[in-house]
Specification:
Belongs to the glutamine synthetase family. The chain is built from 15 helices and 15 strands. It is α+β, with helices and mostly antiparallel strands. A hairpin with a 5-residue loop joins strand 8 and strand 9. The protein is globular, with a radius of gyration of 22 Å.
Length: 474
């Protein structure tokens, strides 16, 4: 078995120098952590890895045991973590794990560049991990490894991606336990009307927002701002761009922290893509590329002219939109968000600063970038980002021509639509030669099966809509 020290490698893109504040997730060195534990200022280490649903899973390790055992050797966890559904049910049909295989262990391999304090829990730090087999070989289907594989492919072309995610959520004054007890009915939203950009509206929830902004800063994220959104209780906190692996690491910490802080405040938040009949919650992903010297390669000058590299990359994103939609929208509920005139895109295409398109080009000069608008708040950031990079590589390697920009309202134009049902997007991904070439059969088959599991669970459920519609009338 390889040592943890040899396995904990990380791809880091070179960032343009802007300002002096750190934009990496690491706010704590391993040596500092050892000193903090020895002094009694840290007593708990969260050892965490991201599952297929984009959630942090792991163990709460005592400080002493972390130093004595886990620091150099990692820790183990059941391999069903990479083969369970949203409700953590064991699921048949995966190559990785099954009752017949005995549900053995995987290794949690700490990546110490992710060490961070967790301010909303006393004396607590977190380290994020890669997952590996017991012989030390990486688990290719784990979300972080899926992304790292695409980062490595892009690196061989001489590029590193940088960017940020814009993640929306809905805040409720109803706590999680009360919400579950009421079967998630009659939830009290934290706002009573559309508070998009409203300072008065966000001022009414500033107690929670202030904790979220400042405690994310304390966890090593570079918080930029917070704002209201359209749906009742809907909010967004923005974070500064950095390399895409760190962006995804930060993203999952933010999701966990937003929920835990809300829980401590007697509230709840949801990252469902469509929690009710109003506007859905998105996860827009902004991305650009730099070369090995940290020089942006998307702009052709100081204005909005795109380089050939950017044109090919964006062309790849557009060309694979249909095949890769499942990786941006992995749940049944994801597709309820896609509706005309909703700010959630339906048209496959790109446009200049056009929020009706799936891909929006924004910025100028070094800030020139694209925004992928299809993912919802329920997207797994590692998988969605890996899809974008794989798409861009496809465009670069095949020198794809960028189609004409969509102008005006893309919702009403005669262009191809993204898949509008999970059934269709899973089928498109599973049968995609581009996907299998980029990710390999093992990854494609694993995540295609996850989609089939989600579909089967929904198809077997009797919904409130069916009961209300047919109980008396049929």
């Amino acid at each position: 078995m390889q040592s943890v020290a040899k396995m904990r490698t990380r791809h880091l893109g070179v960032l343009p120098k802007r300002g002096t504040m750190s934009v990496t997730s690491s706010d704590l060195t391993l040596e500092q952590l050892q000193a903090e534990i020895a002094a009694g200022r840290v007593d708990t280490v969260l050892v965490a890895a991201t599952d297929m649903q984009g959630r942090l899973q792991g163990k709460r390790i005592t400080g002493r045991f972390f130093i004595d055992e886990v620091m150099d050797n990692g820790t183990e966890g059941c391999n069903y973590l990479m083969a369970a559904d949203v409700e953590m049910n064991t699921v048949d049909g995966y190559e990785l794990t099954s009752w017949e295989r005995g549900y053995g262990d995987l290794m949690f391999v700490p990546d110490y560049s992710t060490l961070r304090r967790i301010p909303w829990h006393p004396a607590t730090v977190m380290v994020q991990c890669d997952l590996a087999f017991l012989d030390g070989s990486p688990l290719s289907v784990s979300p972080r490894q899926v992304l790292k594989a695409q980062l490595e492919r892009l690196s061989t072309l001489g590029y590193a991606p940088i960017g940020a995610t814009e993640l929306e959520f809905a805040l409720y004054n109803t706590g999680y336990r009360e919400a579950m007890g009421n079967d998630y009915r009659n939830l009290v939203a934290a706002s009573t009307y559309n508070i998009d950009y409203s300072l008065f509206g966000t001022g009414q929830v500033e107690g929670y927002l202030r904790r979220l902004r400042n405690e994310m800063d304390g966890a090593g994220l570079y918080t930029e701002s917070a704002k209201g959104e359209c749906n009742l209780g809907q909010l967004e906190v923005g974070f500064r761009y950095t390399d895409m692996l760190t962006t995804c690491d930060n993203h999952v910490v933010y999701k966990l922290g937003a929920k835990e802080i809300a829980d401590q405040e007697g509230k709840s938040v949801t990252f469902m893509a469509k929690p009710n009949d109003r506007e859905g919650s998105s996860c827009h992903i902004h991305m650009s590329l730099s070369d090995t010297n940290g020089t942006p390669v998307f702009p052709a000058g100081h204005g909005t002219e795109m380089s050939e590299t950017m044109k090919h990359f964006v062309a790849g994103v557009v060309a694979t939109q249909h095949d890769f939609t499942y990786l941006y929208a992995p749940n049944i509920n994801s597709y309820k968000r896609f509706a005309d005139g909703s700010f959630a895109p339906t048209a496959v295409g790109w446009g200049w600063d056009n929020r009706t398109c799936a891909v929006r080009i924004v910025g100028h000069g070094p800030a020139l970038r694209f925004e992928q608008r299809v993912p919802g708040a329920d997207a797994n950031p590692y998988i969605a980002t890996a899809a974008l990079i794989a798409a861009g590589i496809h465009g670069i390697e095949n020198k794809l021509e960028l189609p004409e920009a969509l102008e005006g309202n893309a919702y009403t134009q005669d262009v191809r639509s993204i898949p509008r049902r999970l059934h269709d997007s899973v089928a498109a991904f599973g049968s995609s030669d581009i996907a299998r070439s980029a990710f390999g059969d093992e990854v494609v088959d694993h995540y295609t099966h996850a989609g089939k599991v989600e579909m089967a669970a929904f198809d077997a459920a009797v919904t409130d809509w069916e009961v209300r519609r047919g109980f008396e009338r049929l």
